Amino acid sequence: HQIVFRKITQELHKRGHELTVLTPDPAYPKGTAPANTQIIKLKDLEIYLNSSQHGVIYVSFGTNVLSNMISTDKIDNIVKVLSKLPYDVLWKWDGKELPGKSENIRISKWFPQSDLLRHPKIKLFITQAGLQSTDEAITAGVPLIAIPSFADQWYNAEKYEKFGIGIPLDIKTFTEEELHHAVITVINNESYRRNVIKLRETILDQPMSSIERAMWWTEYVLRHREKNHFRTLASNLSYMDYFDVKFWMTIFAIIGIFLTLFVVTIAYVIKLLNKMWIYNKVKTH
Prior knowledge:
By secondary structure, the chain is α/β, with parallel strands linked by helices. Helices cover 49% and strands 9% of the residues. The chain has eleven helices and six strands. The chain has a six-stranded parallel β-sheet with strand order 3-2-1-4-5-6, sandwiched between helices. 22% of the residues are buried.
């Protein structure tokens, strides 16, 4: 997450701290990630954004929702809608090809999302409504369309509608017409962008900025790193104790004993009934 923590690493560097950043950033092959405070240069992307005549729609369903996890008919709906609009489109797509992709759609396996959303040409963010994506969109002041698929995403999507910052759609049932209406509504109705900016102002109205708070706590830990109150008690536990292995072994053992007694009892009852049936049969003859 070189992009996300760039400000933190830069500030720590300014304050004289030595840094080591380990990043799984897919934009860089193993061992080629940029230096700790180096600005990531994506000049071609900047040119693409600046040259857009009508603005850009950004589409990303996060890192957990892969392209093959969304039904082909829904992908087809999104492509058809976006291809008919006058806007340029940047789509984070992990597949090799996007079926039906039109000239106005540009795909990539990775985009610097936090920085990208801050560009003034971004008109709309179509997202899975993950927490980090939501936070970055609000910080950038970009209205949203949510197509949630699991976990907290449905809850976040409901909040989009509640605060008037976006429109949620059902990933299983949304139609081409519904998506088109949502896109046109969110882009053309300025109240969505105003509500995002208003929500951002509310969130940022704090005694100190997030970067100042991050710096304070980071340096607090460094000042008091010898003290043990930072360490959770769980760090001193063995794996057996941490995962309650003895407890679960006891539970399974008890369940096993009860199942064994149940099976033995059923077998005994069946055997007894069988003997009684044979006895009665012999007696009648």
